[in-house]
């Protein structure tokens, strides 16, 4: 392959809304046979809205809202934005900590508030009553992500947030499949929500409930099975997996960490451009030969 011919390919890429880090990236793009897709912010829009607030038995809903919104206003996660939205005059939060891929914690008046996946509260010794677990199941069966808020050693309520699949995702995935790629949905979210999104997007394989570190392992595992893996993601927690993949694709709408770790950026945050990139790489090399 002559460098000039490959540069023609990267120039065309820019026109299609694809930024390529170096012409040699196209070589790797051509060989990819599997595409791992992060769910939130990649296949979906990543703009969560609050669909329901369910207080635990005996819990005041206003207090639940206020304390959860206070802690989440310190987080940049799309779930946090949904929970914090529209709440003014919130109490100050101290010792805030982002528990990557699990949730958040912070203190209001010296009292710990913990918010995250139901398992997080249980692991930290919080009592999670049956009505709270039931509310989680109900919301998840509706395709929503349920997070639990708690303090003083017990879960106090559930927030259900909803996201939407990007309008272009199903078409993009259909095109990727026609190009011979096997799509895999990868997410820290729960299995029920992941399955619902996968079905809507036309993705057959789902790996759900993974921690941020688990995303790299999922890519490595596919590579160990002889797959040449592309990974598309947008989050800070996708960066390591994007770097591990044979081809890392970052959403231009995503975080700087993802864009830096990737080989290629889909400027408009549209997966259709991923299909264009694969097609382009194959065509470019055909012309060169
Ligand atoms: P994804 O892979 O879908 O981008 P993350 O790894 O960011 O998801 O988060 C995984 C799970 O951790 C979420 O589904 C949620 O249960 C929990 N979580 C993460 N951040 C927060 C937060 N700020 N507030 C509450 N829960 C959170
Ligand atoms: Mg994401």
TrEMBL record:
Location of this chain's protein in the cell: Cell membrane
Family classification: Belongs to the cation transport ATPase (P-type) (TC 3.A.3) family. Type IB subfamily.
The protein's name: Cu+-exporting ATPase
Organism of provenance: Catenuloplanes nepalensis
Interval of the full protein contained in this chain: 391 to 679 of 728
